[in-house]
């Protein structure tokens, strides 16, 4: 490959972990120059934990409810993550909002995948809200995480036209397929030292990105 050492990565999840699986598969196939060191979940016994176990990746569950408040939870989570000395933290379906202390501690080293074309449709239930609004297009975004919820500088987006009468489940599935393209891509750029956050600017190949890289999905809008 190249002489760049493998990037140590921690992945945070809350559920299925299909994006985590994509990263594991890409790493094992030599497509991303990473070493996924550990997986953290805020919920016990979720399928994503089993995926980590199957891949022999250490997994930890830190539930918010086991701590008196958010600050102590995040301090513990940060210190546990720090013990791995990672170069990158990937929020891959991690559904807890992380506060300023945590986010600023890892600034420039945390990315998130969000199921919408940010800055549109921050927050939860994006597929349902997009369909209810009668949007023509939907997508997913990988962005650096900052204090602003789902508001950090965007790196790459996947966009598809919504089909006529498309169900929420089908749309969610098609968005997931795009996520499996853009998340490994962003991680690959970081692992190859091609991507960085400088201030609020995304730098790719020494150039400031004016707007996120856009990948258009193959599916045509049906009549
Ligand atoms: C993904 O669609 C991801 O974009 C979303 O959760 C899903 C996790 O799926 N993340 C958020 O909504 C974060 N606000 P997965 O567990 O199968 O990877």
Could you explain how this protein is built, in words?
- This protein has six helices and eleven strands.
- The chain is 31% helix and 26% strand.
- The protein has helices at 18-28, 47-54, 70-82, 100-105, 126-132, 168-191; strands at residues 7-13, 34-41, 59-61, 88-91, 110-114, 137-144, 154-161, 195-198, 201-204, 207-208, 213-216.
- The mean pLDDT is 96.
- The protein is of the alpha/beta class and 223 residues long.
- Bound molecules: glycinamide ribonucleotide (GAR).
- Residues 13, 15-19, 48, 92-93, 113-115, 140, 176, 179 line the site of glycinamide ribonucleotide (GAR).
List the helices and strands and how they pair.
Elements: E1 7-13, H1 18-28, E2 34-41, H2 47-54, E3 59-61, H3 70-82, E4 88-91, H4 100-105, E5 110-114, H5 126-132, E6 137-144, E7 154-161, H6 168-191, E8 195-198, E9 201-204, E10 207-208, E11 213-216
Parallel strand pairs: 1-2, 1-4, 2-3, 4-5, 7-11
Antiparallel strand pairs: 5-6, 6-7, 8-9, 9-10
Helix pairs in contact: 1-6
The chain binds glycinamide ribonucleotide (GAR).
């Amino acid at each position: 490959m190249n002489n760049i050492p493998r990037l140590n990565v921690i992945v945070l999840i809350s559920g299925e972990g299909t994006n985590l699986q994509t990263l594991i598969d890409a790493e094992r196939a030599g497509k991303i120059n990473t070493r996924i060191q550990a997986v953290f979940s805020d919920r016990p016994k979720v399928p994503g934990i089993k995926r980590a176990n199957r891949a022999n990746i250490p997994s930890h569950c830190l539930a918010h409810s086991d701590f008196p408040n958010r600050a102590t939870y995040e301090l513990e989570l940060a210190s546990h993550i720090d013990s791995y000395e990672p170069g990158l933290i990937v929020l891959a379906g991690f559904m807890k909002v992380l506060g300023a202390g945590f986010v600023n501690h890892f600034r420039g080293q945390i990315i998130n995948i969000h199921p919408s074309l940010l800055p549109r449709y921050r927050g939860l239930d994006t597929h349902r809200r997009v369909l209810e609004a009668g949007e023509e297009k939907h997508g997913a975004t990988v962005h650096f995480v900052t204090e602003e919820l789902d508001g950090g500088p965007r790196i790459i987006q996947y966009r598809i036209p919504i089909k006529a009468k498309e169900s929420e489940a089908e749309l969610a599935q098609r968005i997931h397929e795009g996520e499996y393209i853009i998340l490994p891509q962003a991680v690959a750029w970081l692992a190859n030292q091609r991507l960085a956050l400088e201030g609020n600017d995304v730098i790719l190949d020494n150039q400031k990105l004016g707007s996120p890289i856009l990948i258009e999905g193959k599916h045509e809008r049906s009549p």
